[in-house]
Amino acid sequence: MSLKSPLGQAKGLGSAKDGLHHWWAQRVTAIALIPLTIWFAFKVAILSMSDYQTVLESIGSPWSAALIVSLVVAAFYHAALGMQVIFEDYISHKAARIIAIMSTNLLMFLLGAAAVIAVVRIALGG
Amino acid sequence: MSSNNRPLSPHLDVYSLPLSALISIVHRGTGAFLSIGSIVLVWWLMALAGGEEAFMSAQSFMGSFFGRLILFGWSFALFFHLANGIRHLIWDAGYGFEKEAVEKSSLIVIGAAGFLTFFVWVIAFSFGIGA
User: Is the overall model pTM greater than 0.90, yes or no?
Assistant: First the structure.
């Protein structure tokens, strides 16, 4: 037996408007980020005092570049989802909330795109 | 009418936040901090893509006292959010909700975050001396 009203069942939306997808995407990106961030943090630590050419070759090697692009996409998606929840909880004014969420989404996309372009350029030796 | 034995709401100004509640808000704080701090990662990758001169000036900023301070805070925030995020995933799977388990996992989260931060900086400095 469902406690939802017939209209609610037909529309399939709770008070959060889009239900499960946000929650699920946050978990999927979180799981992806566990190995990726640990790997990247220690990689950067090892490279911290290396010269330009060494860092360039290490970051730009095919597997490194692929993993960093994966890391960047997962991280900025995860960040956008997380910031959205914070804004939903603390900004009660509807227009301000929508503007905050939308501009964060756009900014996270821009930063993610910039990082991907940088890694692609490093990998392809532009 | 006696009101001596009636239950009271917590007095918020003398209510000490339990460790688990403190970790909960810090998880959110570190999440927001890391979102802003991701600009550092993009800047570093952009500098590396931009050529040796851009990269060396980024490296010298990161190597300065202020740069290292930011990176240290950044790395602790990252490992804290990572460790507590794993705890959240375990909760999502339905485990570890008992009071004792929560108190224990709070300490594990802090210990793991501290250890990983310490370890990554030891590696950074030991490779620095070797290079």
Answer: no
**Backbone φ, ψ for residue B44 (5° rounding):** -65, -45
A60 contact partners, CB below 8 Å, separation of at least 6: A119, A122, A123, A124, A125
ipTM computed for the complex: 0.87
Contacts of B75 in chain A (CB under 8 A): 41
Q: What's the number of domains chain B is made of?
A: 1
Distance between B84 CA and the closest CA of chain A, angstroms: 11
Asked if the C-beta of A71 comes within 8 angstroms of chain B's C-beta atoms, the answer is: no
Q: Which of A37, A104, A111 sits opposite B82 (nearest CB)?
A: A37
| Polymer length of chain A | 126
CATH code at B60?
Answer: 1.20.1300.10
Residue in this structure with the two tokens 């050529």, named with its chain if needed: B51
What are the structural domains of chain A?
A: 17-124 (1.20.1300.10)
Report CB contact under 8 Å: A49, B128: yes
Nearest-CA distance A93 → chain B (Å): 20
Residue B9 located in a structural domain: no
> What does DSSP assign to residue B3?
-
Q: pLDDT tens for residues B95-110?
A: 999 999 999 999 999 9
- pLDDT, tens digit, 9 for 90 and up, residues A54-98: 999 999 999 999 999 999 999 999 999 999 999 999 999 999 999
